[in-house]
TrEMBL record:
GO terms for molecular function: ATP binding; ATP hydrolysis activity. This is ABC transporter ATP-binding protein. It holds the Pfam family BCA_ABC_TP_C. The keyword ATP-binding applies. It comes from the Bacteria. PANTHER family: ABC TRANSPORTER ATP-BINDING PROTEIN, CONSERVED COMPONENT OF ABC TRANSPORTER FOR NATURAL AMINO ACIDS-RELATED. Residues 4-252 form the ABC transporter domain. Keywords: ATP-binding, Nucleotide-binding, Transport. Gene3D superfamilies: P-loop containing nucleotide triphosphate hydrolases (3.40.50.300). PROSITE patterns: ABC_TRANSPORTER_2 (PS50893). GO terms for cellular component: plasma membrane.
Length: 258
């Protein structure tokens, strides 16, 4: 059984059919990419999986469980973490503090236990720190750990956001344009990390990305969408060669051109 399955999902905002009948399955251990022109509905697909938007139709399953009816706050504890297209970090907190906040969903202790600092709290705190230290090491963020987010270069902030998602210890990570705004060298680093997330952490990756170089380098399979509709699915080479996909990137659809 696949780790994530979306069946005929859609969300309409008034007359705007942001996503309009998209189906795909992501296998455990796979790197799966969603591509498409601006406004195609890619980020909206992430917002449907994250259960931020209500579904107009369709169903979603994760890890053998239907999540269609769940609320947004119930998604992260299942093991789905994400990054946002516009970096969402706490600017006036340090890298370490932001990563620790990424662990928040795993808190098992309550407020009173926290105040009394019971052994259970100490054990939990230790576990959080341990996971966060692993992430800092994995993403080579040692030099920045006590630096304020606001003062960091854009490329580093993008990496910290990936780190905050990884700190959760997810099974599936959703990356919304992890390479946007990055230099060629930084994009290549992101490609290495995505490979390592799969190999060393056993993660499954679902990513939205415009950089076809990165998609070709890391993705096993690709889904292309335009105007909320699926266009093609297959290997990066197959999808890039698809006439409808090529037409969509030229700002027209194959039907309109015919
Ligand atoms: N909450 C919302 N209310 C109304 N319209 C929305 C909402 N969210 C998204 N849309 C619309 O849905 C369409 C798809 O948007 P989306 O952000 O998913 O595109 P995208 O493929 O991620 O594009 P980009 O590559 O520019 O990030 C757009 O027309 C957008 O304006
Ligand atoms: Mg987007």
């Amino acid at each position: 059984m696949s780790l994530l399955k979306a069946e005929d999902i859609a969300v309409h905002f008034g007359g705007v059919k942001a996503v309009d009948g998209v189906s795909f399955e992501v296998e455990a251990g796979e790197v799966f990419a969603i591509i498409g022109p601006n406004g195609a509905g890619k980020s909206t697909i992430f917002n449907l999986i994250s259960r931020i938007y209500p579904l107009t139709k369709g169903r979603i399953w994760f890890d053998g469980q239907e999540i269609t009816g769940l609320r947004a706050h119930q998604i992260a504890p299942l093991g789905i973490a994400r990054t946002f297209q516009n970096i969402e970090l706490f600017d006036h907190s340090t890298v370490l503090q932001n990563l620790l906040m990424g662990r928040h969903t795993h808190r098992r202790t309550n407020f009173l236990q926290d105040i009394l600092f019971l052994p259970k709290v100490r054990r939990e705190e230790h576990l959080h720190r341990h996971r966060v230290e692993e992430v800092i090491e994995f993403l080579e963020l040692e030099a920045y750990r006590n630096k304020m987010i606001a003062g960091l270069p854009y490329g580093v902030r993008k990496v910290v956001e990936i780190g905050r998602a990884l700190a959760l210890g997810p099974k599936l990570i959703l990356l919304d344009e992890p390479a946007s705004g990055l230099s060629v060298e930084e994009s290549q680093e992101v490609a290495f990390w995505i490979e390592d997330m799969r190999r060393e952490m056993g993660l499954t990756v679902l990513m939205v990305e415009h950089d076809m170089g990165l998609v070709t380098a890391v993705a096993d399979r690709v889904l292309a969408v335009a105007n909320g509709r699926p266009l093609a699915q297959g290997t990066p080479a197959e999808v890039q060669a698809d006439p409808e996909v090529q037409a969509a990137y030229l700002g027209t659809t194959a039907e309109a051109a015919a």
